[in-house]
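ugh finaly. both done.
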Amino acid sequence: MSLLLNGAKTLTIAGTEMSCIEIYTGESYTLPFNITDSVGNPVNCTGWTLAIAAKFYTADTVTYTSDTDVTLGNLSLLSPQPSTGGGTYSANLTAAFTTPATGIGYIYIPATLTGGTGSPNPTPTISLANSSANSTLVILTLTITRTDPLSSLVDTSREPIGVIVRYQ
């Protein structure tokens, strides 16, 4: 199974490749995606469930070495992590299928992702260009749950998506 995020770049963090998008503060994003099999055919996702949550990191440096290469220096998990309860941040993040029979869906990222929102621990506020506040990396984890038709067991897949947040 493959998750294709339209308009994403590929980012490698600690040897792990992930889809990565760049967003700007104060803007919301709806990211369409397609779930396909190993040869690119749509997957029937009827009955599957989606959930999405975020973890927040800071990077010492963010360097664009080309149009497709980004180098992040010294990632550190923010502490305390922004949270909307239960130890995760998921406020207003949405993942849903629009056409489950062909694996088409979307992820919605709110304009407030780095606007100091959330309780009990708010998200970071990015307010200055070219400052240390301009080095926030958010890793969204899309959790896909489905029942395997052969074994009747519940399968859970987690797809990481990198989000580089930039000041606008």
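ok and the 2nd:
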Amino acid sequence: MKNILITLLTLLSFSSKSQTLPTYDSLGNVTYYTEDTIKLPFSIAKKITRELVGCDSAKAILDLTKDQLALTEQKVVLKDNIISNYIQKEVLYEQRISNEKEKFNIQGVYVKRLEWDNKKLRIKLTLWKIGFSAGVATAVLGYLYLTK
């Protein structure tokens, strides 16, 4: 694009004659139109060329900036998705922790109940042992008393 503009402006600055361009009307007849050309000084043509090149580069930079902005927006969307996934994971972890705490509390209730049952059974066993020992001792003493 830049080279075409430079060539075009250079040709415009060198040409001073008017040109005739053939065109065709609706009936197919050839008609000629005379177009006037403007002769520009070389310094002005050079300035115009520089401005056109600068404008083209500014447009190219604008396009690159738009592309970069679009990529940055996509990157932000992806990062937002990652953050929302981590937030959901955090909620799930908190639920898991609360479920584990509840499970340990329920297990604690069962452990206390089992400890109480165990204590009752030990007391019963001790009483049975005492009762059995007393019964055996009574039986042995009664046998000895009766046999003596």
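summary for the 2nd one i guess: Residues 41-147 form one domain.
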